[in-house]
Amino acid sequence: MSITRDNVLEWIERYTQTLAENREYLTQLDAAIGDADHGANMDRGFQAVMKKKPEMLDKDIGTIFKTVGMTLLSTVGGAGGPLYSTVFLQAGMKTTGKMEMSLQDWITALEAGIEGVKMRGKAELGDKTMVDSLFPALNALKQAAEKGNGIGDALERSARAAEEGMKATIPLVARKGRASYLGERSANHQDPGATSSYLLLRTAADQWRDA
Fold first, then answer.
1. Per the confidence metrics, is the pTM higher than 0.85?
2. Three-state SS string across the chain, please?
3. Cα(195)–Cα(203) distance, integer angstroms
4. What kind of architecture, by CATH, is found in domain 3-208?
5. pLDDT at 42 over 90
6. Integer Cα distance of 27 and 145 in angstroms
């Protein structure tokens, strides 16, 4: 069983819808510790991605990921644009020419994306950033793969780990990004980047469950 090119396009489209539905929620989270623009920025970026869907219909997964990354880089403001762009561009490098992905292919692509984010944002686990959702999700994927679990189960475990990581940002004091300027006042607020990252992986699990 594998994740096809069409599955990837369906995931991106569904995530675009999810962002539109959660635009105000993400903005509210960002208003507490950031610039109150994460929801609007992410929504705008993926709406721009959807306008390019027709030209991605016959492309390989790597090209699709790279197209998403370049579009986000040019349309998403704030820190989210470069960071989410990095996720997709790095994932695209690992999936060049592929028309479908195995579970291991997705692990490799996601790991490259996360490492890119860590390098670009200089963020580590516990800094109250999107890494706090992405890193536990990656570990859950790897553990599921080592046990020989199927794609659907592995993705579900990954999404749950991302959710736990997202919630774990609430008591943290931010050490990176705009929120770090608030010092102790950044505690007791859920990180918006970790939240949009959780939504990304939750959408993948829901969309690819039957892959």
1. yes
2. CCEEHHHHHHHHHHHHHHHHHCHHHHHHHHHHHCCCCHHHHHHHHHHHHHHCHHHHCCCCHHHHHHHHHHHHHHHCCCCHHHHHHHHHHHHHHHCCCCCEECHHHHHHHHHHHHHHHHHHHCCCCCCCCCHHHHHHHHHHHHHHHHCCCCHHHHHHHHHHHHHHHHHHCCCCCCCCCHHHHHHHHHCCCCCHHHHHHHHHHHHHHHHHCCC
3. 12
4. Alpha Horseshoe (1.25)
5. yes
6. 35
Contacts of 81 (CB under 8 A, 6+ apart): 41, 45, 72, 73, 75
- pLDDT tens figures, 135-186: 999 999 999 999 999 999 999 999 999 999 999 999 988 887 767 666 787 7
List of residues 6+ apart from 170 with CB closer than 8 A: 187, 188, 189, 190
* Residue extents of the structural domains in the chain: 3-208
Is residue 192 within 8 A of residue 26, CB to CB? The reply is: yes
What is the radius of gyration, based on Cα positions, of the chain? 16
Separation between Cα atoms, residue 177 and residue 29, nearest integer Å: 14
Q: What is residue 118's predicted lDDT score, i.e. its pLDDT?
A: 93
Amino acid at 10: E
Q: What is the token pair recorded at 81?
A: 């644009």
Q: pLDDT at residue 122 above 90?
A: no
